[in-house]
Amino acid sequence: MLKARARRALAVLLCCCGLAVLGLAVVSNWQARDASAKLEPLRGVATSRPEVAVTFDISWGEVMPPKVADILKAQCVPCTIFLSGPYASKHTDFVRRLAEDGHELASHGYLHKDMSAYSREEIRDSIQRTHDIIRDLTGQEPRFIRPPNGDYDDLVLQTAAELNYTVVEWSLDSLDWLNPGVQKIIDRVVTRVKPGDVILLHASDTCKQTDQALPEIIQALRGKGLTLVTLRTLLEGAGRPQ
């Protein structure tokens, strides 16, 4: 009788231990999924301040980049400009000029290829190489990356976060990369914009109408009472300092 009771007690104890372990595993898996779910790219921010961030991608070009830079300087507009590593290393004087003009420099990765096809080490290398180039040229320590083509997956988000980077997409695409017509670019931005937007524009040579649309976009946004700021300033105004 005593042996039977002991066996039953042991069985109950083992069952309880098994349930406890299973419970810990479920909680652990839930926490891991929850942590992964919180990793999202920055697209825009909720803010009570009338601010928007105008951002540019530059991966190649000799003509459009200086045109855009001249307009921004004339209009006193500070932007966040995402530079690819090879472009920055080839156009060192222009990159320094962007920094001197007051722009925030950010990363567009090293090669203009979809980062979701990269391994963890390739992602790290793409971010770090471009970071080092921009830092060595300007003294700025970039903290934002916009993956080429806006392409990312969980591994890109996780690896960027490990390097203290925020992956940035956009909340308003000007579609200037399609060259749809100057007025269409202007109308798309001006009619859709709202405070907290991250506006996507391009200053590579393949975008042939951006410089023509940009002055009117700037004036129209200001006419709506909006202030054009860098990403860092936008986040600070929304209580999300980087």
What does this structure look like?
The protein has 242 residues and is of the alpha/beta class. It folds into 2 domains: 1-38; 51-237, Alpha-Beta Barrel (TIM Barrel), CATH 3.20.20. Helix content is 50%, strand content 12%. Strands 1, 2, 3, 6, 7 and 8 form a 6-stranded parallel sheet that branches. Helix 6 links the parallel strand 4 (144-145) and strand 5 (166-167). Helix 2 (64-74) runs parallel beside helix 8 (210-223), helix 5 (120-138) crosses helix 6 (154-162) and helix 7 packs parallel to helix 8 (210-223). Mean pLDDT is 89; it is low at 12-36.
Please give a handful of descriptors for the protein shown.
50% helix, single chain, 242 residues, 2 domains, alpha/beta, two-stranded parallel ribbon, globular, 8 strands, TIM Barrel, 9 helices, 6-stranded parallel β-sheet
